From TrEMBL:
It comes from Seminavis robusta. Transmembrane segments: none annotated. SMART domains: RGS (SM00315), S_TKc (SM00220). Residues 576-643 form the AGC-kinase C-terminal domain. One of its GO terms (molecular function) is protein serine/threonine kinase activity. This is Protein kinase C gamma type. The keyword Kinase applies. ATP binds at K332. It comes from the Eukaryota.
Amino acid sequence: MEELQDAIEDAQYVNAISTQEDGPRPVLPWEIPTEEQLAEWETKCKEQSDGASGRYGEPLSFEWYLSSAVGFFHFSSFVKSEKDDYVRINFVEEVLRFQKSRGKTRVEKARFILSNYLQSPKRNFDNGEPELPPRTEIEELDLDRKPSKLGMTSEEFQTLCNQSIDSENLFCCVGLKGAVRDELITSVQSGLDRAESIQKAESVPTLPAGDDPARQRPSVEGGGKSEPLQPTSISSESMRDLTRRLRTDAAGDMPSDIFNKAEAVVFEALRRQYYEAFKESIWYTKLRNFIWFQDRRVVPEDFFVMRVLGRGGFGLVTACKKGTSGQLYAMKVMNKKRIKMKKSEQLALNERKALAAVESRFVVNLKYSFHSKDDVFLILDLMTGGDLGYHLHQKGKFHKRECLYYAARIMLGLQALHDQQYVYRDLKPENCLLAEDGRVKITDLGLATKITPTLHGAAGTRGYWAPEMLKRDKNGRRMPYGHAVDWFSFGCCVAEFISGSNPFRSEAALNFGLERGKQTKEKAIDCATQEMDPEFNPEKFDPEAADLCKRLLDKNHRTRLGANGCEEIMAHPWFRRVKWEEIISDKKKPPYTPPKDVNAAPQSEIGTFTEDKALQEIVIDERDEEVYKSWDWTNPRAFAAEVIEFLIYERTTGEPLLPIAQNASCCCNVL
């Protein structure tokens, strides 16, 4: 009977995954607030607003509504569909895309904006009408607009707008004139000229390469002829320049804020002309209802649980579907009694805080967190492709293109955590999950913690621990450590990807420790971690791969590659052919697509939790509930993506998107 139930759940799960590309498939209507609920919500908004919801500015103001992706989408749709005025709002959209891009893509986007929106409009030869750029619609799920910081008062900004808005569009099709337009054109053209010069340049600064003159310097652009790295040092200024360019893969000095002043003036012109009409439209009503829905408390009934995917220390992980959008996620459920019994409240809170703090393409993201009387819930990215430990076991080792791709993404995931002052502490192949298309992300942030001057103690998995986690001072106390421990674990993983074996979980490491008198496997591995210098078989490791792993596995955390940030690792010759712009922008196609069969063990293997007497005797009181008072959270980007995908589908089909019938039919439009 259990096997039959597993088969039914598997079929439902596979069907849900296979139909995701067909568009949103809601099963619940969006709840529509009453006037009383809206009034109560507006009062609450005025009392507290901190930007955590993805909205900025004075609550309920034009800037506040439109600083979220949902608000911007609604206003853009209103201007285009109701007012048949698209050029200026398209200009704003292109500026937002420019700000999100980097490297060569950013340069090309700047060139497009300059030639299509800022030049004096050309006139049609036959009728004299201005030739306007083509109309486009928002297709992205995350195109949001944050208010620009221009360094001027509101009065000064309004004066600037009065001087710069050209209502007759004589100077350019977006209605800009005067110094704002002229200075912008000069700045953009200058930036384009610099970019062209840099693209033609044949040399870039080089990193110190130790004593091996055979090492090659990396090509920042991912190609071209390599040159020997000389064992010389470079100035800190050159290092900063190189690291900036590596992180962004910049093709020129094109700052992301170059269009800010012009965009703010154009957007103010749109506000003056259309905001009052927008507030009287159905688009505004829908927007308010959606934002009210975002701010309402999430409850378990908002999700439909599918099949069980795994079991954690405090509960199960299941696939689930968000009722109003049909979006698939992973639901991690942790029982409050089990958490209390193991005194792990702080562990659970740390994971929740770390997940909410890190928004990255390279880390499994938190979408929603909420709690009920008995459980706490984390709604996460659903990764259906299995973990790298599983695939490594199946393949023996990874092809170099796979090693490069996985290592690059994992590295950027670690750096995203470090940028928020977190250290991960649990990197291993089993904690790197593949999505359905093969994109890899770091998962399980249960051991991630904020860096403090006194952070100490081994955490994670033996054999991936950094040596400094095991060190003690002369008084026997554990030594503090920082971000560099993650780069040691990263080195272990890279070596494992290349060879199929972790250097410190190998037979050589075990023998190393046993020969030094260690009595257990665990102590032998710890001994090897602290004292053994691994050998990298040239049949598996080319010279650059061996050098990379050697420098990542440096026992000295101060000289370890990555100690000053991931740019040091990005600059290593082993990554020479990686096009960082493609990786960072998530445009690089994965080298391997996992099979589409269900990547989860049968329920019988996953098992269940026993409701023993000790657990039953645990009582959750008011003090325990106080621990979770700040647990509830909605990721504004995740919510916006659900709503905008929903609205794009309706726009494309020209019909309202209705829930799939489940005992009742109801309109899914938020009106």
